[in-house]
């Protein structure tokens, strides 16, 4: 597309801004092309001479998993060996074969989209780029990258599955930087970047939370530093060490009820609130991005290029200059004047419907140290609730495969349960009795699985030591004892008296003084 003419009018810009305030995943354009703001996730990761083939194959695995996750919507594809885009799945590329025969000195690239007009922003897309490997020590290799676009409503409906996919992919790739939020969705056609960058320059003054994601030009520059996150971000160990901070110091610096941190094997996954926001500029500078970016400022690349394909004399469209790029990158700084000094100092006003955020409880991946003493569980995994000590390695679960991980979450309820089923970890150490037959009991250590009874799953009830005794045993406490399932037979017994039978039957006796506590 030529940009010797205006890409849009001022009226179109106003209309697009209004739409985005109503729904952040909106589009604007004409019969030739439409450009949209979309939720996205981007992964930037290194590849080297030793692992380039393995990384390429993992990229194919990630593509296939995400395609299934979003419901297989792709209709157009292109790959390194195709001269032009082709219809998919009518034609299916053998990406694994391509990955194996692509040398380290060549790019391994493929893309999928659901938009048949290559000049229009996709609704769903996956862009995969494994950079070629430099062999000259004087040159730096660019990051490899994966970028996904998807519908906002899909994300709202599937955020838990999305998060599990993202956290798994981070460790699978050994990612150095990961960003998620809202950005202009780049069309498949390279030549559209000029139009998209014009929209970016005009929309960003209206929304603090609008990110700029263009891996094609950022993959080498992000080696020098990060860009400011707007919602979710991976602070990898690689970049955290450049801050000269420990993980604990990062958690302390970001100790805010609205900020969630998940400890991963390769870094810390940080989310600023429950979901991404565009943050209209007229509502003031948002607080959570300010907190995070204050911490990350020392590793920010203030010279990150945002020009796309550049600007030339006579271009009627406003674009980012180098000076504007630096102002935009610093927009969350305390001394920033972005977008203008007048609008900059508007007080931040959250939406009236926004609830006061509850403090987000710690979470961490299997294989990482437990962050604090207490009861932890894995969402959607029955019988996973267990007690751990701080520093203890959080375990994998039996069904967890080698390339997967589970995320442990600190339970809001830190009270050990008195009831549990067969197969569940014992939430208390000691003596457990069968709920349906109190005379049947077992003894378990903390977190040891409770047994099955006669090959059946049953419910167990924890009993406090010294408060129950069977017929024939010596009385552990003086006082009145009763049999719950043979009422009307209360007896007073002295210490070490033999516990009696009832009508010749052996029964389980309960010390009356604690009866109300243990039932």
From TrEMBL:
Organism: Pseudomonas vanderleydeniana
Origin: domain of life: Bacteria
Family annotation (InterPro entries): TsiV (IPR021815)
UniProt name for this protein: DUF3396 domain-containing protein
Region feature (Disordered): 414-434
